[in-house]
Amino acid sequence: MDASQIFPVPCLTDNFAWVFENARKEAFVVDPGESAPLEEHLAQRGAKLTHILITHYHFDHVGGAAELSEKTGARIWAPREAVQPLHKTLEGGKTEDVGSLSMQVIDTPGHAMHHVSLYFPALEALFCGDVLFALGCGKLFDGSAEEMWRSLTRLRALPPETKVCCGHDYTAGNLRFVRSLKGFSEAGERVVKALEQARAHTPDNQAAGLPTRLKDEICANPFLLASDETFLRANDISHPAGAKAFQELRKRKDLF
Ligand SMILES: [Zn+2]
Fold first, then answer.
1. From the CA of 95, how far away is ligand 1's center (Å)?
2. Cα separation values, 251 from 4, 115, 241, Å
3. Distance between CA 85 and CA 67 in Å, rounded?
4. CB-side exposure of 151: number of CA atoms within 13 Å?
5. Domain boundaries in the chain?
6. How far is ligand 1, taken at its centre, from the CA of residue 186, in Å?
7. What is the whole-number distance in angstroms between the Cα of residue 38 and the centre of ligand 1?
8. Could you tell me which of 6, 72, 190, 209 has the fewest CB atoms within 10 Å of its CB?
């Protein structure tokens, strides 16, 4: 492993781009919603951007890609039709070398039709765009509940220590929704409390408490608990565990 730190860089209103570097000060960015904050970050670090990685085509994830690429010469890798210019198309199920780092591309549709999540085993880090958030998940814009549930279960199968580097700071709202639900395990309650404390004295959009760990999401993220019969019963959800229960939870959050 030659990358030591992963930095969230706030973009636009409530987006995070994520930047990491290798020992040679080559930098990689995921989902630059705008160019300026990333240029500033790179200048501060004295790092040279080589790759711009994109999870999906929504403007707040690609808005800064072309400008950053033009200014730095970095190559843009993205799912098909996500952005212009596009130097390499990312496809689910493939493994790519990003500099000296191996990256697994995971197909995660549901929020957007062509949405990939990017997993780096050497960093123990997952960049999941708008699929999985701290205690939340993305809205179903271009996909079905079945697709999103399948995507979430794919991410849930990654190693428990995985850092979940999500695309937005929706944590405050997600915490409120979580507090309206019952039936969390003791471990889940501890995760929720820790995240509340991490954010208690920090303004939103400062990435307090992020990235979360996958093992914490597995016990405290209500959407990942859609397969947990005890949790469903505690919240009067009679839909079958899995995609149907997930759909009901997503609907409740949309109306919350
Ligand atoms: Zn999106």
1. 23
2. 39, 21, 15
3. 10
4. 31
5. 6-165, 171-255
6. 32
7. 19
8. 190
How many A from CA of 15 to the centre of ligand 1?
A: 10
Query: Could you identify the residue written with the tokens 């240029």?
Result: 39
Cβ proximity of 31 and 62 under 8 Å: yes
Query: What is the tens place of the pLDDT at every residue in 220-234?
Result: 999 999 999 999 999
Pairing status of strand 6-11 against strand 116-120: unpaired
Cα–Cα distance measured from residue 243 to residue 153, given in angstroms and rounded to the nearest whole number: 10
Fold assignment, 6-165: Metallo-beta-lactamase; Chain A (3.60.15)
Q: Summarize the confidence of residues 163-180 as an average pLDDT.
A: 95
- Output the CA 233–ligand 1 centroid distance in Å: 31
The answer to whether the beta carbons of residues 197 and 175 sit under 8 Å apart is no
* Average pLDDT taken over every residue of the chain: 94
Closest CA to 140 of 235, 15, 55, 253: 253
Question: Using an 8 Å Cβ cutoff, are 12 and 36 in contact?
Answer: no
Residue-wise pLDDT for 105-148, tens only, equals 999 999 999 999 999 999 999 999 999 999 999 999 999 999 99
With bands split at pLDDT 50, 70 and 90, how would you rate the model's confidence at 4?
Answer: low
